[in-house]
Backbone:
């Protein structure tokens, strides 16, 4: 019953500061009101045995979460938060799970934890729960989507990881099922029922209010972006839509030049990028068209020459020609891979 568990965590709690300080603070714990059929079923099967406990824990005893969906943290934001902590003390609460009697793993609140370390804060307020790996990933993912927009790549990777944990489908398997079985042409056929695997995947996507077709046509594309676009997107330098648009430029040099141009601009709209990509593709494609036309003409000439001399070739020459043609055929078949 994820909704009930999260509602319990989403209440505010008045806690006493450590070291005998008299001021009390209201700490927002967790906010999430998503009602999830799949998550209800999952947590119905395994309820948390331990009641959530609030306690002040040494920052040095907390380690970064291995299931953190976010891959990039803006250092300027962390610096600003650290400055606030130094001036006003630690605010907020971290979600952790115990590793042993003294050490804890962070589940949610990594920006605050990093800022606390940078600010020299000794102890931070934590909410301790016995999360399983699946519950920890799901909780962290919901928190990130709810509070701070994840990049589409981070969101996609985390959701595929959750699918793998819950149903044993690897990222490659889940992606293939979504691309093939989830295709509109197949979904529209009344004689083809969706597989159990696809139904399971859809249940996870619904838990985050994501439509299957949106995930298929948009999210999965983020997995195939070039590294420079991935890094710029993770750092928040370019939007997801701009990254996908720039991916249309297959020439690495041209794409890199446009990326540098975008990063040097004060602001860049998607429409501006769309127009630049269209113009650059036209510039690049014209020489390719001319080269293709030239190659096509050469092949036609070669074919005509073969027709003229074919009857005059001896057995060895014919065998040599067949070998050459087979090599050319193999090359053309593998050229696009």
Residues:
């Amino acid at each position: 019953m994820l909704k009930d568990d999260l509602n319990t965590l989403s209440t505010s709690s008045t806690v006493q500061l450590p070291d005998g300080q008299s001021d009390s603070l209201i700490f927002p714990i967790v906010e999430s009101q998503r009602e999830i059929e799949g998550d209800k079923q999952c947590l119905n099967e395994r309820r948390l045995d331990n009641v959530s406990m609030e306690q002040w824990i040494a920052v040095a005893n907390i380690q970064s979460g291995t299931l953190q969906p976010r891959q990039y943290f803006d250092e300027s934001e962390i610096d600003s938060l650290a400055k606030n902590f130094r001036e006003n003390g630690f605010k907020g609460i971290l979600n952790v799970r115990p590793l042993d009697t003294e050490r804890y793993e962070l589940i949610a609140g990594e920006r605050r934890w990093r800022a606390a370390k940078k600010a020299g804060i000794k102890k931070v307020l934590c909410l301790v729960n016995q999360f399983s790996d699946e519950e920890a990933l799901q909780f962290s993912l919901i928190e990130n989507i709810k509070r701070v927009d994840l990049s589409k790549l981070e969101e996609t990777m985390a959701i595929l990881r959750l699918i793998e944990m819950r149903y044993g489908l690897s990222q490659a398997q889940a992606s293939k099922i979504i691309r093939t079985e989830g295709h509109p042409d197949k979904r529209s056929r009344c004689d083809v029922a969706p597989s159990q695997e696809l139904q399971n995947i859809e249940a996870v996507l619904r838990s985050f209010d994501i439509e299957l077709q949106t995930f298929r046509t948009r999210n999965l594309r983020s997995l195939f972006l070039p590294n420079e676009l991935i890094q710029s997107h993770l750092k928040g330098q370019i939007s997801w839509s701009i990254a996908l648009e720039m991916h249309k430029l297959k020439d690495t040099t041209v794409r890199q030049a446009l990326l540098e141009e975008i990063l040097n601009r004060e602001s860049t709209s998607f429409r501006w990028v769309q127009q630049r990509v269209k113009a650059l593709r036209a510039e690049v494609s014209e020489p390719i068209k001319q080269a293709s036309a030239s190659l096509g003409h050469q092949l036609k000439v070669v074919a005509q020459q073969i027709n003229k001399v074919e009857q005059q070739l001896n057995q060895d020459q014919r065998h040599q020609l067949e070998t050459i043609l087979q090599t050319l055929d193999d090359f053309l078949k593998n050229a696009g891979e």
About this structure: The chain is about 60% helix and 10% strand. The longest strand covers residues 53-58.
